[in-house]
Here is the input.
Amino acid sequence: MPGSRCTNRPRDRFRNAVRTHLDRAEPGSLAAMMARIPADGRTDPVDQVPQWLFAYDPAGAVAYRALALLTAYPDELARVRAEIAERDLTEPQDLPRLRAAILESVRLWPTTPLLLRDTTAPTTWGESTLPAGTAMIIPTWFLHRDDCTRDDADRFHPEQWLDGGAHEDWSLVPFSAGPAACPGRELVLFTASTFLAVLLRELDPAPPSCRAVSRCRRGWTRSP
Here is the structure.
């Protein structure tokens, strides 16, 4: 098609720049590990990096919100402190409770509020039937906080990510799901939980003041 070569030029320049950074990556870095993965015709490390860069854009926000939730829920904060007490945080660690807190922060405040999906079969909606291939917009914030179906709609409930309840609930998609699931999910959960573990080991977050947001049974209210 006329002009198709031109439309690819920005993408090619971007991919070449990413490859240059991978080729000169600092030894021991994540980029150096990526550079050692050979392209096999189906996957290329150069194409994985943009996915991770995109995932890291909201990673700071989910870590910050998880910290706020733990600060407001001292019982859960104590459980997290017990989890990291004997861990060597200079080595990679599996930190289930911190991962659960992060996942719960994304449930309550989805960083991707809308998902795009296509129907795979005719779908009846009210009095109409949508043909297969119909584009749909799915509001994750509604599914995550539907108070008609969820007792924890506006409540911090990290335990569901530990006992398997959340994983069996198709409506919870903090990192999307299925073939279109976020490729940066595990990296964000690992780095954010490690960051919070180091932070909580070194610092004691201050509890909310009387004028800050406090807990109630159905979510958040402002103290008088």
